[in-house]
Structures are given as C-alpha cells and as structure tokens.
Amino acid sequence: MKKEDRSILLRLTKEAAPIAWGLLLAAGLNIASVLCAVAAPALLGEVIQRICDSAVEGTLASLSAALPPALGLLLVLYLADQALGYASRILMNRLVTSRFTCGFRIRISDKLRRLPVRYLDQTPVGEVLSRMTGDVGDMGSYLHQVFDGLVMGAFQLTVVAAAMFRENWLLACFVVVLTPVSLWISTKVSAVCTRNFDRMFESSENLTAVTEEAFSNYETARAYGLETFTQEKHEKENAALADRTFRAHFTSGLVPPVVRLTNAVAYILINLLGGWLILTHGLGVGAVVTVILYARQFASPLEMLADDISYLHWVVAAARRVFAFLDMDEEPVQKGVLPAATRGEVVFQDVSFAYEKDRPILQNVTFRAEPGQKIAIVGPTGGGKTTLVNLLMRFYDPDAGTITLDGQNTAEIEREAVRSRVAMVLQDTWLFPGTLRENVAYGRPDATGEEVEAACRRAYCHSFIRAMPQGYDTPIREDSSNLSGGQKQLLTIARALLADRPLLILDEATSNVDTRTEVLIQKAMGNLMRGRTCFLIAHRLSTIVDADRILVIDHGKLLEQGTHEELLARNGFYAKLYNSQYEE
Amino acid sequence: MKAMLGLLKPYSKILILSSLAVAVSGLCDLLLPTVMSDLLNNGVYAEDFSHILSGCAWMALITCAGLGCQVLGNWLSTRVAANYCADLRREVFRRVNQMDFETFGSMGAAPLVTRATRDVQTVSWLAVSLSDTIITIPVLFFGGVGLTMAKDFLLALTMLAFLPGIFLLVALIGRKIRPLWEESDSSVDRQNELIRQRLRGIRVIRAFQREDSEHEKISEATHTMSRAMISANNAESFIAPVTTFLLNAAAVLVVYFGVFRVEAGTGLTGPDLFAVVQYIALTSGSVITGAFTIIEMPHTRVAAKRIGQVLNAPVPAEPAPPEEVRLDGEVTLDHVTFTYPGGAAPALEDITLDLPAGKKAAVIGGTGSGKTTLVRLLLGFYPAGSGVITLGGRDISTLNRRTLRDQLSPVLQSAALYSGTLRENLLMGRPDATDEEIWSALEDAQAADFVRALPEGLDHPVKQSGKNLSGGQKQRLCIARALLKDAPVFLFDDSFSALDFLTEARLRSALARRLAGRTQIIITQRVSTASHCDRVFVLDGGRLAGAGTHEELLRTCPVYREICASQKGGNV
To answer: Disulfide-capable partner of A286 in A45, A257, A431, B540 (CB 3.0 to 4.6 Å)?
Structure first.
C-alpha cells in the first residue's frame, strides 16, 4: 500500500476516535461470540467420540443419561455465539451509521455553506451527491471491515488455528496450509471478476445512454423515420452488454467452485490422514470430527478477509475524495461592514474578469448607477451580462478593477452584508418544496402574514394563491408542477418585494408565459422596481426603452451606454440590434 | 407475463439442463459426508486402510464430478440469463419504437428508459435464477432427506420438520425487511433531492442569506436517513443469526435423538450421526438461497408488470401502404378539434384554416395555446379527434405515416441530436447528401461559421443528445437537417428561440431565399418573427383567435394586440 493511502486510512481511523469506546465494546462482544463458536465443535466432537467409544466398549445404555447435559451446553454455546454476535453487529451498525457516517454527511453539508460559488458552478450536482451518499457509505463500511472483517477475522483465525493444533497438529497443518492457497486462487479470480464487472457496467451505461437518447428524441425519430437507425444503435450496445454480462457473471460464478475445491481437498486429506492416524496412532474419531468442523470455521473468515482487502482500495478512494472535499479552500472572509442605510449608488471601475485564465469575459468595464436608476444590460447571449450580476453579488470577485457600493469597495465588505442590500429575480425561478408562504418569505423569514399577503398583492399573486386549495399554506410540489411558469415568476417577484432591499437585480425570463400573465408580470415588475437601483438583464423592448441607461455588452466589452434615444442616434451596435427585427 | 415467458421458451431445454447440473453438483456435496461415514465405519473401525484409501478416492471423484456440474450449470445459466436479458431488452426497445404517441405519452420517456434497462435486468435475472431454484431446491431437499432416511428414519423426520421451518422463517423476515429498505431508500432520495435543490438555488440562497437554514434542513434529513438505515440494517442482520442458530439446534436435536437410536441398536453409528449433521448444513444453504429468491418475487412483479405493459402495447395500424409521391404543399384544417387522452379540455378546438402551397405562415400564441399540438397533428403523431386535416389535397388520416412524414421538414422544439458525428446527424435529413450540399445547408442555417471553427469540422463528435453543443448551435443544426430533407412543407416549432435577434434576422433572409416555393409554418412567441409572414394565425386557449396579415390582425384581433403590447411596449 502506498504511503499516501496509508495516511488516508490513518486519518479515517482517527476520525473514529469519538466512538472508540463503543467500538471496543462491540469488539468485546464479538470476541465472546467467537470463543463460543470455537468451543462448540470441540464439544460436539467429544460427544461423537463418546458415542463411538461406548459403542466399542458396549456401554451404550449409560449414554442417554450422560449426554443431555453436554448437548444442553452445546445448545447454550450456539445460542450465545449468535446472540453475542448479533448484539455486537447492531451496536456497530448504530455507532457507524448514526455517529460516523451521519457526522461526515453533516460536515459535507456544512462545508457547502462556505464553498465559493465558482466551485459549485464547476461541479456537477451528481458529484456532490456521490460524496454525500456513496463515498461516505464506503467510508462507513471501512469500520465494519476493520473491526468485523480484519480484527475479528484475524482473531477468529488465530483462535481456530490454535484449537485445531490442540486437537491434532498434523491435521491442523494441512488445513492451515491449504486454506491460504484457496484464498490466493480466489483472489486472482476476483481480480478478473472486478475487471469484467467494470467493463459490464461501462457497457450498461452506454446502453442506458443510447436508450435515453432514443426515447427523449422520440418525436424527431418518428418525424425523420429513424426507427431502424436507433434500433441498430441499440442492438450494437445490447449485444456488447450481453457478452460482457456473461463474462462478468461467469467468472464471478467461478469463485465458489474454487473455494469448494480447496474445501474438498482439505476434507479428503483430513479423512485420509485422520483415518491413518486413528489406525496407527490411536487418534479418536471425535478429533477428526472437530477438525472437520474447524476447517469450515477457518475458511469463512479467510474468504471474508480476501474480500475486505480487495475492497480496501475502494474505501481509500472514497475517503480521499471526501477528505479532498472537506479540505477545499473556503471563501475568504472580509470584515468590512456597511452603514445601515444604503443609498444604492454603484460604480464599476475598470472591472475585468475571466472564469478561466486567458478567456476574458469582461474587460475594463466602467459605468455608474445613481441611486434609484434603472440600468438595462443588453447584448447577445454569452456576451457577459450575467457575469456583471455575479460580480455585483460577490458570487465571484473581479480579477482587476473595483466595484463600489455607496463609495465603499465591495471586495472589502463582508459578502453577506453586500448581498443583504440586493434582491434578485432570476430567470431560473428557484422555489423550494415548502409552502407558498415560506417561499415568498424566503428573504425575510420573520415577516408577518399581513406583510406576506401585501407583497403578494403587489406582485399579483394573491388571487391565484387564494384560489388554491390550501391558500398560502399550499405546498409546492417537488417538481413545482402545481404552478405555471408565469405564477412562479410572480412568486419570485413577491419574494423580492417582501425582502425590500435598496438594490434589485432582475434577469427577465425569455417569454414562456401566456399573454395575460405576461401583462401581470410587467405590472408586478413595475411595482418592484420603484424606488430601487435596478440592474435589468432585459429581453423585452419595453423594459429597455424605459431604462435610465442602457449598457450594451458584447464579447466582454462595454460597447455603448446611454438612453434609448442617444443610442439610436449613435447608430451603432444597439441600433443594429434594435432594427434587426424589422428587416426582411 | 405471457410475452415474457414466450421469449424464455427457446431456452427452456438449456435451463432444465443447467438446473439439473446445479442439482447434481449439490447432490455430490451431500455424498461426501456419506462416503466419510462409510470410511469411518468400515475403514477405521474395521482397521482396513485400503478401504480408507478407496473412500478417499471416491471423495475425490465425487468432488470432481460436482465441480464439473457446478461450472457447467453456471456457464449455461449465465449464458441464458445474459441472452434472455438482451432479447427482452431488444423486444422492449422495438415495441417502444412502434407504439403510438398516446401510449408513449402516458408512460413517459424517463420511465420507459427504466423499463427498457433496469426492469428488464431485474426480471430476466430473477426468471433465470427462479427456474434454477424450482428444480434445484426440491432435488437437494429430497436428496438430503433421502440420504438421512437411509441412515435413520427418525432423524429424517427431524430434518423434515426443521428445513421448511427455516425456509418459512427467512421468507417471513425477508418480507418484513423490504418495506424497511424501501423507507431507507426513500429517505436517501429525499436527502439527495434537498441537496440538488440547494445547489440549484445556490445564488438565491446566498442572495437571501439562507445557507444556515438550508444546512439545518439537510442535517435533519440526514438524521432521519440514519434512523431509517439503522432499522433496516438491524432487521437484516437478524436473519443470519436466527437461521444459523436453528440449524445448530437441529444438529443438536439430531444427535440427541440419534443417541437413543444408537442405544436401541438400529445399526446407527457415531459417524453416521455426524454425516446427518452435515446433511442439514449442506441442504439448508440452498433452502435459504431459495427463500431469498422468493422474497424478491413481489418486488419483481412490479417490474414485470411494467414490461408487460410495453410488450402488450398496441401497434398502430397503417391506413395505407407507403407511396413514393411528392405532394404539393397546401395545408388545410377543417373544423379540427383535438383532446389529449385523459385531458379535461380540448387542446385544439374547432380550428379551420388554410394555407396555400408556397406561403409562409406564423402561428403565434402563449404557452398552452395549442401551437405544439398543431405541429403534432400535422405530423400524424396523434389523429385529429374530429375534423379533417389535408396536405396537398389529401386527407392525412388516409395516408401512410411514412408518406405523410416524407412531405414534412420539421424542426422540433426539443432540437434533438444523436451521439455520433455532425455529419451523421445532418444526413438523417437526406442520407445521400454530398458534403457540398451539407455545407450549403449549414451556411443558410447560420451554422457554417461555428462548424468550420471546430477542428474536426463535419466529423466533430456529438455527445449524447448533443450535450456538448449550446442550445443555439443545436437549433441551427436541426434547421440545417430540415433544409437537407427539403420536403414540400417546413415546420419550425419555436426553432429560433435560442438565437439572438441578429442571427435570427440573417437566418430569416437566408430561409426566404432558399425556401421560396415551399410552404412554411412557423410556430413562434415573437411578434417580430410573425410580422414577416404572409399569414398569421393567433391561437389562444386552443381556439383560433384571429387570422390574417400582421397589419390586419393589429386592427382586428385584440389578443394579437395584447401580445404585441407586451413585447414591444406602448411607445414603439
């Protein structure tokens, strides 16, 4: 094992320190259970021996009186073995799940609070989810393995081996030598299995991808008569998957025969050797019986051990990913504060920014928004409009230049303080599965019922909310299918109205609403914009024309700024954009 | 169910062979203790070493036979399972490709993907392991009982009493566990959903400083999840100790009764007793596996039912054989009303319109106004509920669907591309198009510039559903594909929405040149797009609210005026 892997395992083990006592208790229970398990075959062997002896000696009559206490004890041993084992298992299970893995999951969630938006933008959701579920789960099974598998397995092996040697050293030698050979062979087979299964899963993913593509493009497939095309594409992956599935499952099916073969060899040898020892060295039949039973007890932890060791690299990989996540750089904290009253004057001075080095998104952007002004930002998609919002909200910080709010450089002010001065209405109407009231009050959780209602009235949501079965307490479904696109937009406007902040960022949705709701949205936005410094990423001409100042942004440059009339008069990019819709 | 079993039928002989092989290998296992007891009885006690040797030779032989059978059984049954699974998957896929849109819509694309992949997998593997168990378990069970019977009648009865008990117990506990696991799974889903929501809403959450409460929510869900996992795990950990203990108890009981039998002088010996103890252990292994297979059955029944629905879905009949014609592009609708299956209100109601060949029409209206439904009816995805749609003077319900779709060059809203190369995707429009023709289509679709900038050009690899292309790029490629198909009627369903005004203007003038003489139906939400068309049809709530030119509608149609007002503002 590599040094780095060892240090990860060490760190993982240290993380288990808080539950160390519980784990020790579980280990103690387990040890007791193993001791019971090891005592039982000796006792059973002895019983069989006595039966054989008395048959030879002709003292059978006394047996039925003498044996029940021994058999009773045997039953108690079996019961104790299972009961103690079960107790240890559920104790482990509780400790690992409720303390160890649960703790990691909460720490990951906690970490999300302080990670920069940049990281979250670049990371697919699925990745965070697999940190949280799969990876942490693997880390939890490490403890199960270390204690159940490795420590207990090793303990059981030692005890069983010792007990076997006590019975007969020669027979014991054979078992102890043979079992690792079987182990070695089955590990080799397992390695082939793992490779085959990986290839099978890869094939299976390809097949799902092809199926998904075919079914989600169903209409196009029909319109262009692509049925045969998709079926052939599917069949290619289907045949590959069938082949790889067979290989994977067949090789994994070879493990039990390998184990069985060595078990059988051991069994035969014990019989052969045992028979010879009985004849020549006066060994008892009971000893042979006991060793046969022990051989089985000896094989099972070894099999598990092999699995556990091969599983260990999964655990290390999972732990490495989780630790890397937890160790990630967090957003630096600034101490600056803002005065309670904000006028809402925003100045961008020579601001430059790039998401990736060498691919500048904004270059030397300079403009000024007076308190209460409406600033419309227009330009082709990908030109840098949303980036302005990202910088203003301090989701990202500029590479050069400064952004000031009421004369204070925002880069020196606490992020939360800057954000608390701005309300946002984004295209992507994010609502969470909670009640309508909770959603509207998201920016001001302490708002009273009247305040929520007042905001909803001004955002034209009140009437449709009241028409819903549970009114303001109607829960939003997980996929928000009980709301139309327009209603969602109105709700986000109500949310911003209630939050009542001196600055407003409004990213207009590209129309996906019916005409009547559209009119309501326009009116609601009018209410929302009143008295605030507004930054509008505008798609509707009416909004643009009404703005106090229009910023035309393309390819990261601020090409033009001014009012609608001024820009038309300039006959530049904006005029071209504006006139384009009247050209044939 | 019948259809699924039908697919399994060709494999029935191999399946029987494989289960027999598995059963024989199990019996071989049982024979080892038999030989052992004989070896001890007649070799050791008779002090006959040659008997010991021959006993061991028998054991070796039996082991080899058992192993051979096991490997053979494994080879056969995995082959069958893998092939059967592939057959079933192929069949499900083929059926989905044939089903009508009504059925497709009612099942949904994502659930159908699950049916065609995961469900098939679950069902086919269970079918194979079940057919294995059906033969294997009885053989082993009666084999074990029979061998015991040969040793002693009373001990066989003891065994008969215990094994079914263990089987039932495992089945019962298993049934209890499943709901616990389901609860645990759904608590994991819930937690995942919360994280997904949180990451998606990260900007809103930070803007409103609600990170703390979001974290609180997730912590709570994590605790709930832990509790659910613990109860499921605890219940599952219960099976092994209980069954193991019962098996051991059976062994003790066998020895106890055995002693009386030995005493009674039935000829039973100590080694025989030990052999019976081993029979119990060996037989019970397969019994427990069988019980688990049976626990899985109800779970699989859901999957089987879902697959059955696909396999039994009706295949729509064709009204006529396909014909090689190119109709002229006149499109008319006569009192067409259409309601989606299960829909409360009609999506289109009493629509009458006509569009002469070679004209350009816009259909405008908000979401839910019925625009896309109109496209679906024209493409013959759904039959018109009442009324008649004609294309080139022919009632489309009397046309073969292939013939109908040959008359249409659609660009659908979803901008569907397939994994493969750009060229492959474009050739779907016309398989025999030359590179020159492709480039000219790309040029007019305003896609030539970005394709040229790609290092591999037309051979640029497209990822699944075009994930590696932007929305605007996909739309332009789909337009190029439709241009290559060059049918008499072009349908553009909201196909310019991801293009900026400037690109749309260039595209519009290129299309005006290229598509002269073709009928164009442009579904749009933008007045600026509609205003350039020969005719504009205004849809509102499934009804035709107005028809005419842009100027006429401004005068006569209040809905159209409203749309204009909302998009342009009062002062333009």
So the answer is: A45
Contact flag A78-B252 (C-beta cutoff 8 Å): yes
Q: Amino acid identity of B84?
A: Y
Q: Say what the pLDDT of residue A103 is.
A: 93
Distances in Å between the Cα of B451 and the Cα atoms of A67, A210, A368, B504 are 89, 24, 39, 18
The minimum CA-CA distance between B108 and chain A, rounded to whole Å, is 9
Q: Give percent above pLDDT 70 in chain B.
A: 98
Over residues B195-216, the mean pLDDT reads 89
Inter-chain CB pairs, A–B, below 8 Å: 409
The helix (H) or strand (E) run that includes residue A100 is none
d(CA B275, CA B281): 10
Q: Are strands B386-391 and A557-562 parallel, antiparallel or unpaired?
A: unpaired
Residue B243 clears pLDDT 70, i.e. is over it: yes
| CB-closest option in B55, B104, B559 to A271 | B55
Suggest the residue from B252, B507, B513 to mutate for an interface test with chain A (most A CBs closer than 10 A). B252
B113 interaction partners in chain A (CB closer than 8 Å): 208, 211-212, 215
**DSSP annotation of B315:** P
Select from A507, A513, A541, A548 the least CA-distant residue to A525.
A507
Q: Which residues pair with B388 in a beta bridge?
A: B334
Q: Which residues neighbour A67 within 8 Å (Cβ) at sequence distance 6 or greater?
A: A47, A50, A51, B255, B256, B259
pLDDT of residue A509: 66
Of B281, B424, B475, the closest CA to residue A297 belongs to B281
pLDDT higher than 80, residue B155: yes
CA dist B309 to A219, B106, B306, B478, Å? 21, 11, 5, 33
Q: How far apart are the first and last CA of chain A?
A: 71
Name which of A86, A219, A267 is nearest B414 (Cβ-Cβ): A219
Tell me which of B71, B87, B239, B263 to substitute to probe the interface with A (most A C-beta atoms closer than 10 Å). B263
Kindly report the number of other CB atoms within 10 A of residue B308's CB atom. Answer: 16
Q: How many residues does chain B have?
A: 572
In contact, B331 and B378? CB cutoff 8 Å: yes
CA distance A540 to B561: 16
Rounded Cα gap, residues A223 and B142, in angstroms: 60
Of A178, A271, A536, A573, which to mutate for an interface test with B (greatest number of B Cβ within 10 Å)?
A: A271
Closest residue on chain B to A73 (Cα): B252
Cβ <8 Å between B405 and A225: yes
Half-sphere exposure of B175 (CA within 13 A, CB side): 9
Nearest to A229 by CA among B568, B173, B447, B97: B97
Task: Give Cβ neighbours of residue A378 (< 8 Å, ≥ 6 apart).
Answer: A385, A538, A544, A550, A551, A552, A553, A574, A577
Residues B19 and B275: their CA atoms lie apart, in Å, by 25
CB-based contact A256 B208, cutoff 8 Å: no
With residues binned 3-state (H G I as helix, E B as strand, rest as coil), the percentages for chain A, rounded to 5, are: 70, 10, 20
Per residue in B320-353, pLDDT (tens digit) is 898 888 999 899 999 999 998 877 778 899 999 9
- Six-digit token string for A142: 């490490």
Mean pLDDT of chain A: 86
Nearest to B307 by CA among B129, B94, B116: B116
Q: Hey, is A545 helix, strand or coil?
A: helix
Pairwise CA distance, residues B135 & B502, whole Å = 72
Residues of chain B contacting A74 with CB distance shorter than 8 Å: 252
pLDDT in tens, B45-73: 777 888 888 888 998 999 999 999 989 99
Of B52, B78, B116, the CB nearest to A249: B78
For residues B393 and B407, give the distance between their C-alpha atoms in angstroms, rounded to a whole number. Answer: 12
- Residue B567 parent element (H or E): helix B558-568
